[in-house]
Amino acid sequence: MKTKLHYTLIFLWLGIQSYYSQNIADFTSVTPTTQTSGFVLPSSHDFQRIIKVGDVLTAGGNMLTKPDFTAYVPIAGSSTNGYLSVNSEDAPVAVGGTGGGGVTILDINFNNTTKLWETTASQIVDFSSVGSTAANCSGTVTPWGTVISSEEVAFNPIFGLIDFNFDGYNDVGWNVEINPVTKTVIGKHWAMGNMAHENVTIHANERTVYQGADSNPGYLYKFVATNAQDLSSGNLYVYSGSKSGTGAWVQIANTSITERNTTIALSANAGGTVFNGIEDVEIGADGMVYFAVKNEARVYRFTDSDALETSTSTVTMETYVGDMNYDIDDGVSVTSVTWGNGNDNLAFDGQGNLWVFQDGGNNYIWVVKNGHTQANPDVEIFGSAPIGSEPTGITFSPDYNYLFMSMLFLTDPVSNNANQLDAAGNTVNFNTGTTLVVSLKDNLGTLSVDKSSLSNNFNIYPNPLKSSRPLIIQGKQINNIKLYSILGKQLLDMKYNGLNTVNLNLKSFNSGLYLLKVNDKTSKLIIK
After folding, report:
1. What is the mean pLDDT of residues 310-331?
2. What keywords appear on the UniProt entry (predicted)?
3. pLDDT at 1
4. What angle do CA 346, 351, 356 make, to 5 degrees?
5. CB contact set of 336 (below 8 Å; sequence gap of 6+)
6. C-beta of residue 454 within 8 angstroms of C-beta of residue 442
7. C-alpha–C-alpha distance, residues 378 and 326, integer Å
8. Could you read off the pLDDT of 101-125 as tens digits, one per residue?
């Protein structure tokens, strides 16, 4: 017979495990700020640069410009061994671009000894078989292990039909499927429609696809493939109805070349509901479909009563987040921050939190916590992209320990010398498009090993620290705090009697790198 003490010990153990276990969404919001020369992120996290624009590739050539969607494709479900497919959101030469877009695929793996990601092969995908590609923006990783790269530029109707390869189709404005293993193109999926594609998301049934047009007018679509894992044929539907209530799917023609080239016009004729710039669409663990509309400053979500059946299926839609101010608590003060326009890339982490990358304003990385409602908001700011860039292309490893993303610069290169150290000890200046991985410090880098011993037991922030602000140290039973120079000279020795929170004034100390010791745990501290 189990005693009360037995159950007490079980609950105590579970509580301790919960207290010390961390996931990538465990952080204190950064202080709301305008963009700086560096990547602003919580002191609990670190990043590693994987590749930057212009780097030499193993298969020849150089890393393409304007990196966007950064798709991690696991090998056999691995969170430490896979392919990283990086889109290039460069416009075609015909509309003023220089590179014409494209995709670079890296073979990457995680070194458990160094706690760093390594690239063993890198190659540009050859799109000549489908008449080239352009403005490769976002996309998705399919349930069957391929990558969809979405072309954001569609010539029709503004520029008219442009068909350099004489196949009858507009040359750009399609979803393109890629095999990351062979680095080859499976095909452009004409039946999914021609538009300024930003992203697609695929239902677990492997037939239903939700997508949107990043234009004004833009429309929300549902594509139901004829066969699972084959997006080359199927029925296309446009949403018609309320943005705060119910609606339905209306089928539009998508069989002939002319019909497939004129998706936007056919959507208007069918009475499709107009959205001003749909950026990304994702399916949550709750089964609801979420989509960002950049110029309406909000993320909508809806339920679809039957993902495959459309004649009587009902769509019920609402605003999930945006179009208002949110209180951001950085651990020192609370600031009311406007959501603003430009909500762009979306992704859910393993706890059901929605990560939202902002294209515009301060180019924030927002995290909308699981359980958030507009009536009871729960929103945090994870970071801000460097000056001149926007955060793009988020995907997670299957265990959700690693977030893959890029910094896209519209002007590339720029003069932006951040001199920011990454987890590998590399100096990163963020003066050109950069692809990187983000994680908790304990999970990433040899430098993080030195910094992690403290974070396992105590929370210190902000770090780096502006000398004008107090350093906040939180944890159980703080008895002693010491500060050392990087050469080991003791500079401060403070005694406490088992406090849980200490506010430490370090105004008298010069900018530089220090060692902070709390009880018997040591970490690096940067004072700016």
Report:
1. 93
2. Signal
3. 45
4. 20
5. 325, 326, 327, 328
6. no
7. 8
8. 899 999 999 998 888 999 999 999 9
Contact 154, 91 (CB under 8 A): no
Rounded distance between C-alpha atoms, residue 52 and residue 65, angstroms: 9
What pTM was estimated for this model as a whole? 0.81
H/E stretch holding 16: helix 4-20
Comparing CA positions, the residue from 328, 332, 327, 367 lying closest to residue 462 is 332
Task: Please give the torsion angle defined by the CA atoms of residues 13, 15, 17 and 20, in that order, rounded to the nearest 10 degrees.
Answer: -140
- pLDDT band with cut points at 50, 70 and 90 for residue 484: confident
Helix (H, G, I), strand (E, B) or coil at 326: strand
DSSP labels, 342-396: -EEEEEE-TTSPEEEEESSTT-EEEEE-TT--SSS--EEEEEEPPTTEEEEEEEE
Please provide the DSSP assignment of 189-247 as one string. Answer: -GGG--S-EEEEEE-TTSSEEEEEE-SSSB-EEEEEEEETTEEEEEEEEEEEE-SSEEE
The single-letter DSSP state of residue 311 is: S
| DSSP 8-state symbol, 274 | P
Give the pLDDT confidence score for residue 6 in this predicted structure: 45
The residue type of 178 is I
The pLDDT tens digits for 380-412 are 999 999 999 999 999 999 999 999 999 999 887
Q: Which of 68, 71, 70 is nearest to 91 (CA)?
A: 68
Q: Rounded to an integer, what distance in angstroms lies between the CA atom of residue 156 and that of residue 152?
A: 12
Structure tokens at 302: 């809806």
Instruction: Tell me the H-state helices in 287-419.
Output: none
Judge whether 155 and 170 are in contact, CB under 8 Å: yes
| pLDDT tens, residue by residue, 227-243 | 999 999 999 999 999 99
Distance separating alpha carbons of residues 291 and 325, to the nearest angstrom: 19
> pLDDT tens, 276-313?
999 999 999 999 999 999 999 999 999 999 999 877 88
Q: Which pLDDT value is given to residue 384?
A: 96
Q: Are strands 379-384 and 136-141 parallel, antiparallel or unpaired?
A: unpaired
pLDDT at 453 over 70: no
Angstrom distance (rounded) from CA 258 to CA 198: 22
